[in-house]
Amino acid sequence: MASKKIRRRDMIQQVVQERGGVSVGSLAEMLGVSTQTIRRDIDVLCDGNTLRRAHGRIELAEDRLNTPFDQRAGTNLASKRAIAEVAAAQIPDGATLFISIGSTALSVARALRYRKELTIITNNLSAAMALSEEVSNRIILPGGELRLPDRDFIGEEVVDFFGRFRAEFALFGTAGVGEDGRLLEFHESEVRASERMRSNAQCAILVIDHSKFGRLAPAAGAMITDVDQVVCDRRPAAEFDPVIEALGDGLLFAEKTE
Q1: Which SMART domains does this chain map to (predicted)?
Q2: CA–CA separation, 142 vs 153, rounded Å?
Q3: Residues 157 and 237 in one domain
């Protein structure tokens, strides 16, 4: 099988795993191919027990779809909790911060549960709810349609939303990191939202577990070296040594090694 076809099908599986389901049209637009090509891919991908077709969409099989989002999408959960504790330790009471979509960002929000008088600007409803238990916090959300089952807001309206604010910190994740250190997302609007948060914050903190290094996604964003600080669970594979070395003191590992 051609490597291009393998990479495309891997991307489809990643999107469905993270989002629970996605339409054929959205996949075709995202990956720059025809809907007929996507349907052929789906024929192959659904020949098993993990994925299923559903009214012009491809979804997780029912037993996996019913798993809560933060458990289903959040692989490496112990590592993400460790990342979250390190990132949250840098946020003082009274800070203003952006929080992006994604399960790692959600883990950081949960780790901030003891902070007070935060101003949180986010398109991640689950993060907002996690921080709403502290009544001294101020939480600002965009309007628009809530994407399910992820419980977040995406699109150009969100890019404009983040552009209206300034923050001391931006906490955000990414879908993948290319071999050259490029941050990758599944949608161009997600790239623009992350870039708007990064440029409008005094300190941008990327929270990412090692599995995202080498993970493919079609929309290219900033370089990882453009971020003020990266918090990762542990060192990724050796082929990323040049990227890791370029980060210098801007990289923190959450898991201690001997």
Answers
A1: DeoRC, HTH_DEOR
A2: 7
A3: yes
pTM reported for the whole predicted model:
0.79
Instruction: Look up the domain containing 40 and give its range.
Output: 3-65
Distance (Å, rounded) from C-alpha 163 to C-alpha 147? 21
Q: Model confidence over 53-65: pLDDT tens digits? A: 888 888 877 655 4
104 and 48 together in one domain = no
Q: Please tell me the total count of domains within the chain.
A: 2
Return the exposure string of 38-50: e unless at least 16 CB atoms fall within 10 Å of the residue's CB, then b.
Answer: beebbeebbeeee
One domain for residues 107 and 9 = no
Rounded Cα distance, 81 and 102, in Å? 13
Asked if residues 193 and 48 have their Cβ atoms less than 8 Å apart, the reply is no
Using the Cα atoms of residue 155, residue 157, residue 158 and residue 160 in order, give the sign of their dihedral.
positive
Q: Among 190, 206, 104, 122, which residue's Cα sits nearest to residue 154?
A: 190
Distance between alpha carbon 201 and the CA centroid of its chain, in Å? 18
* Residue at 227: amino acid letter: V
| Most trustworthy range by pLDDT among 41-50, 60-69, 184-193 | 184-193
Residue 154: pLDDT above 90?
A: no
Q: Are residues 79 and 185 in the same domain?
A: yes
Sheet holding 21-23, edge to edge: 21-23, 57-60, 51-53
Specify the CATH number for the domain of residue 55.
1.10.10.10
Nearest to 227 by CA among 188, 256, 198: 198
80: domain CATH number is 3.40.50.1360
One domain for residues 119 and 10: no
Whole-number average pLDDT of the chain: 88
